[in-house]
Amino acid sequence: MATVQVLVLRAPGTNCDLETAHAFELAGARCRRVHIYQLRQEPKLLEQFQVLCIPGGFSFGDDVGAGRILATQLRHHLGERLREFVQQDRLVLGICNGFQVLIQTGLLGCGEGPQREATLTWNDSGRFEDRWVRLRCEPSRCVFLQGVRELFLPVAHAEGKFVARDQAALGRLAAAGQLPLRYAPLVPDEMPQGADAPLPYPDNPNGSQANVAGMCDPSGRVLGLMPHPERYVDATQHPHYGRQRAVEGAVPERGQGLALFLNAVRYFQ
């Protein structure tokens, strides 16, 4: 059986490419880290891969807005190639800054430019949020989340608040199954009334509308999410690992974030 090939896209300011490549390799894939300038020069490189991942970091220093410069380069220089990539039954994953990039490219199926139905903006707290959050997965076609019901993952961002253009847009995205990942209470039995009822800070670390933590395209093959699954692929990365081992006597063999990377590999096997 052929090994799944993953392209992890780098740009000036990207800082999670090594961890992301490691996570895919743990799942059984073979990864190649490629700089955006190289991909612009050799766009046919995309044909060698089944998965494209845009990892976290601060691409181009978020100089004119989080992810905007990289998104502009992808749209103008590789837009048609990327659309063909998705249409050929391949997968795209955007993590944190990668989600910020994807939501501006049109690949998430929520439009482009002034017609975009959703965006990511500054956290309500007005500061960079670096913490662990609980997540619940809605039933959806999202390839990366198949069989996953809950996740415990870290976030690290300043512009992660999901906002829909209006209630009609929010309803359409939800009805289409494009909002599969939501923030959940850190204490599981404290769920507010109604699935979309706003959670307080820090359960919802950025104030996202309807507690949205991730978004996929209608096909389920493109996913963008603010939490970092690549930062919890090993049990020792859990913030309470030592306490769990001492008190409970046993810990999971792997971190919950690995499930997303395993699902991507299994999709092609």
Keywords:
single chain, alpha/beta, nine-stranded mixed β-sheet, two-stranded antiparallel sheet, 22% strand, globular
The CATH homologous superfamily is called Class I glutamine amidotransferase (GATase) domain
How many H/I helices? 7
Compute the separation of the termini in Å: 8 Å
Name of the CATH class:
Alpha Beta
Instruction: Evaluate the radius of gyration.
Output: 18 Å
Spatial sequence of strands, sheet with the most strands: 2-1-3-4-11-10-9-6-7
The biggest beta sheet reads: 9 strands, mixed
Mean of residue pLDDT values = 93
Task: Assign the structural class, choosing from mainly alpha, mainly beta, alpha/beta, alpha+beta, or little secondary structure.
Answer: alpha/beta
- What portion of the residues fall into strands of 2 or more residues? 15-25%
Task: Give the overall shape.
Answer: globular
- For the secondary structure, the number of strands is 11
CATH architecture: 3-Layer(aba) Sandwich
Any overview of this molecule?
The protein is of the alpha/beta class and 269 residues long. The protein has one domain (5-267): Rossmann fold (3-Layer(aba) Sandwich). The protein has 7 helices and 11 strands. The protein has helices at 17-26, 36-41, 68-87, 97-105, 167-175, 241-247, 258-267; strands at residues 5-10, 30-35, 51-54, 91-95, 118-121, 129-137, 150-157, 161-164, 181-184, 212-216, 222-225. Strands 2-1-3-4-11-10-9-6-7 form a 9-stranded mixed beta sheet. A two-stranded antiparallel sheet has the order 5-8. Helix 3 (68-87) crosses helix 4 (97-105). It is globular and about 50 Å long. 46% of the residues are buried.
